[in-house]
Amino acid sequence: MFYVVGLGLCDEKDITVRGLEVVKGSARVYLEAYTSILMVQKERLEAFYGKELILADRDMVETESDEILRNADTEDISLLVVGDPFGATTHTDIILRARSLGIPTRVIHNASIMNAIGACGLQLYNFGQTVSLVFFTETWKPDSFYDRVKENVDLGLHTLILLDIKVKEQSEENLARGRKIYEPPRYMSITQAVSQLAEVEESRRGGTLTPDKTLAIAMSRVGGEEGQQRIVSGTLAELLAQPPEVFGEPLHSLVILGRRLHHLEVEYAETYAVDKEIWRRVAKDVYGCVLE
């Protein structure tokens, strides 16, 4: 059996009881380590699970899946992923490859940023399409995400923006020369994300992400223990003005609020507002939310 096991969002204890039983009973256990990260090192997972973990980077998962699936038709093999298994298309792809080989598969679900984002007080059924924001370079600044955000805004829906991470990435020079030299890990911050959003708005001029009229909620280390998780709400302009340390350690996520705001959403997120008066004023005057 080939298992894909969700690990949740925080540390070694977030695995489900069912997931832990599967891990303990597996002949080999792989840890997918590039679509997201946990807040603890691999060694802590190994100590808690009582199993050696084989790190599976992008190359292994995408081009060497035969090795991961080896003997999975006769013994249990597990692939561990941060969050929920269906949070990335990569995991869907390897499940399809296993099925094409006649290997039985099973998924063990867990919490992911897609549902834990509700910790900021926004109602999950008021979210639209989720988008990803990648690191801009001098020559590459993709802005197709803007259209998805606009579609959500036009429907009054919130937008979860997943911020880029770079793990085991190669520079263009090393990639061109075929050198297996990797850059240090990088995680996009709220400050960089909001700066890029402002740059795209300045270019598009569509009014979708106007900095002083767009409410947003910044979140970091969602699901973490007390003191780890951070929530900061305000206009995009207010978030951009905050010192980086306000947002805590990575991983960071950002939510752009939709215009179909419920007063309970506004009141809940107000707890985390940079300036409560500005938060309520923009919610009332720009978003048309009737506050009690």
CATH evolutionary superfamily of the largest domain: Tetrapyrrole methylase, C-terminal domain
SS field, number of helical segments: 12
Mean pLDDT: 92
Which word captures the global form? globular
- The run of helices and strands is EHEHEHHEHEHEHEEHEHEEHEHH
Radius of gyration: 21 Å
Organism: Ceriporiopsis subvermispora (strain B) (White-rot fungus)
Binding site for S-adenosyl-L-methionine: 9, 84, 87, 112-113, 163, 222, 252
EC number: 2.1.1.314
Domain Tetrapyrrole methylase: 1-239
Question: What's the short story on this structure?
Answer:
The protein has 292 residues and is of the alpha/beta class. It contains twelve helices and twelve strands.
Protein model, in words:
S-adenosyl-L-methionine binds at residues 9, 84, 87, 112-113, 163, 222, 252. Helix content is 33%, strand content 17%. With 292 residues, it is an alpha/beta fold. The protein folds into 2 domains: 2-111, Cobalt-precorrin-4 Transmethylase, domain 1; 114-287, Tetrapyrrole methylase, C-terminal domain (Methyltransferase, Cobalt-precorrin-4 Transmethylase, Domain 2), CATH 3.30.950.10. Strands 3-2-4-1-5 form a 5-stranded parallel beta sheet, with helices on both faces. Strands 6-7-12-10-11 form a 5-stranded mixed beta sheet. Strand 6, helix 7 (145-154) and strand 7 form a beta-alpha-beta unit. The radius of gyration is 21 Å and the shape is globular. The N and C termini lie far apart (55 Å).
